[in-house]
């Protein structure tokens, strides 16, 4: 089943399971559902719980391809010291050999359903085909144009190339896209994969390409348009800012925070309690209140705080030695460094420090640390405008999408433009096209694409050439142009 963006492929798959159980009297234990990533597994589990109930959905096996591979080889593989990484690399290949010797049917499974099939590697596709030969019925769902993991070895292999007697159907109607956005998605699609025709009856505004003279103006324009939508009582949860990389999103998040608009990155929520704790510590330093902090005191002010009392006080003593009362901006930054050092996990520490650093430039707007803490609490209570890389945005939709940083060097990314073998470069550019295709297909109403010259810190280059991925779209005039240069 090949499904265009917004066709409801995951919903169709969950309804198929419901039909099998309720209308065909198939036992839940006889159904195996596979997907590529843990995130899609969690989405499927949530939907099954909703339509089937927790008791029934618990009996349906919902797993990643890798977890099945690990089960198949678990009894035949011994992992030596330092061998876990090697085992993981060959795990799927070993599982294919084991799968060819499985009884039929395997574990009494009667139905195999695969979601997000386009993200599977050739070996994972071969494993699915081997399992399908031991399970009577198979349904594979995916969209070749939404394969975004070629860098990790993913490559779309039609299941009909691996199994005989496969029927291919297309879910071509999109419940999400307008005709205008669908036309743009098709115009930027990969040249190596012919996308399925997108049918829709929805109409909306024509997608726009906004040209600015520099990134600063682009940031101001996007922030202004987001604030304007919120002033028109649009829901912040219906707005998203997407980019190829996380780095390009940072100035947009900072600009919106300066305008008291909360933003959040998909899959990267950091509780405001951390920033509030840092603000409270800054308040104590400025007030020269160096009495030991107690968890009871912090719980009264900040709610439950999962920190060891002794570790907290050691940090506070270090704080009073290293930081002298002064401007709130400097004190808050110093408190953030001391506080984040309490956390062992590097990723957690980095995320908390990143979130705290977003507030540092805004400290000048507040008369006291208490006022800053109040602003942080107020910001946390708002519905966030979502910011995301295109990869993490796959499978989601918003009414208003701002796609920023669409310029040669960022989208397509600079390392896809380096001199290399023509075939290899075409593969890389095709992956960039699929990224742009996915990004344009996130908008259910308005899509605005932003382009401006960018000074790239990592390569120390200035990217200023129009994105080559938009050439066809501009020639076919599916994009309107707003030039503010």
How would you portray this structure in words?
44% of the residues lie in helices and 13% in strands. It has 18 helices and 15 strands. The protein has 485 residues and is α/β, with parallel strands linked by helices. Helix 8 crosses helix 9. It folds into three domains: 141 residues, P-loop containing nucleotide triphosphate hydrolases (Rossmann fold, 3-Layer(aba) Sandwich); 158 residues, Rossmann fold (3-Layer(aba) Sandwich); 110 residues, no CATH class. The chain has a seven-stranded parallel beta sheet with strand order 9-10-8-11-12-7-15. The mean pLDDT is 86. It is globular. Keywords: ATP-binding, Coiled coil, Helicase, Hydrolase, Nucleotide-binding. InterPro entries: DNA_helicase_UvrD-like_C (IPR014017), DNA_helicase_UvrD/REP (IPR000212), P-loop_NTPase (IPR027417). One of its GO terms (molecular function) is DNA binding.
Short description:
With 485 residues, the protein is of the alpha/beta class. The chain has 18 helices and 15 strands.
Helix coverage percent: 40-55%
CATH class of the largest domain: Alpha Beta
Stated plainly, the CATH topology of the largest domain is called Rossmann fold
Shape: globular
Query: Largest sheet, described in full?
Result: 7 strands, parallel
Low-confidence stretches: none
Strand content: 5-15%
- Radius of gyration, in angstroms, nearest whole number: 26 Å
Spatial strand sequence of the major β-sheet: 9-10-8-11-12-7-15
Figure out the total of helices: 18
Provide the residue-averaged pLDDT. Answer: 86
| CATH architecture group name of the largest domain | 3-Layer(aba) Sandwich
Q: Which structural category fits the helices and strands?
A: alpha/beta
Number of domains: 3
The number of strands is 15
Which homologous superfamily in CATH is the superfamily of the largest domain?
A: P-loop containing nucleotide triphosphate hydrolases
